[in-house]
Amino acid sequence: MMLRDENTGLVLVHMRPSENGKTCPIAQKVFQIAVGCDTSKYIAIKGFKNEGCLQHDLFYIIEKSYLRHQPQKNLRVKYDWNKYGCPLKLDFRKKSFHPLLQLYNDSGYVEDITVNFIVWEIHGRNDYSFSNTMKKSGCLHEAQTWKSMTELNKDLPLEDAWGPQNYKHCFSYAIGKPGDLNQPYEIINKSNHNHLVWPMDHAGMYVFRVKILDPNYSFCNLTATFAIETPGVIPRPSGYVVGAILFLLMLIVFSILVLSYFHYMKIYKKYVYEPTDTHQGKRKDN
Questions:
Q1: DSSP state of 227
Q2: Considering Cα of 83, then 87, then 88, then 93, what sign does the dihedral take?
Q3: Domain that includes residue 166, residue range
Q4: Residue 29 lies in a domain
Q5: Is residue 95 one of the residues assigned to a domain?
């Protein structure tokens, strides 16, 4: 936003011949150039749509442990269909997603965007990560992250803490210290195959906002919003739970066997053993 404001406006150019030049007197020329954002341009994420899905009152709960600022209570969110569009429902076997940004204007599709961009979850979720590390991405020193940029710009809102106005790449020894390059690399573009990665032990609704990070791509503050619903999988039970269930099943089976034995002995004694003794007693009396 700051970069756009500093470089947007109307430039008046006044041209006249040099006073020392041997030219005939001519009228001076004045023309104007508009420098700034083309308001007809916007970006969108491929594969998402704003219409065609079944819209209904949708509320969901985000556990407090999944939120960036660790609040005291869980967060209840109402999904805004008009703002966020239709969420993309991922298959439970797919634990990652690579957003592809596309540029549009009033005439329609323009091009796939190849420059760097960043994403953040607008409700403060941080229970997701990125598939690439800084080292894998080729960084020579620690890259910028949401954590480092929000700590550096504590007085700014989250979405203004990091953007094209303060972006610095990580591919030069002269810019920063090496640091820990095994951290997730939080910058995405079309060719680096850096994916958003979800936890598999719980389901979730994520509403992301995306922003172009490259300051040379456009004067516009190009942003877009997209939502992803992850189903998660049934968590694997612990060994203690499995052992307890097996022990309980064995106890039930053993109890059934013992009860069956005593029940059989009761039947045997009543209908087999005792009638034989009675018959032998009658023969002795005769």
A1: E
A2: positive
A3: 39-230
A4: no
A5: yes
Q: Quick check: pTM over 0.90?
A: no
Q: Are strands 223-230 and 88-89 parallel, antiparallel or unpaired?
A: parallel
- Look at residue 280 and tell me if it is in a domain: no
Q: pLDDT digit string (tens) for 210-247?
A: 999 999 998 888 999 999 999 876 555 566 777 788 88
Residues 6+ apart with CB under 8 A from 10: 32, 33, 34, 35
Cα 286 to Cα 284: distance, rounded to the nearest angstrom? 5
Domain membership of residue 113 (yes or no) is yes
Terminal Cα-to-Cα distance of the chain (whole angstroms): 119
Split into its structural domains, the chain has a count of 1
CA distance 127 to 106: 37
For 110-136, give one letter per residue: b (16+ CB within 10 A) or e: eeebeebbbbbbbeebebbebbbbbee
Return d(Cα 137, Cα 143) in angstroms, integer.
10
Do 162 and 144 form a contact (C-beta atoms < 8 A)? yes
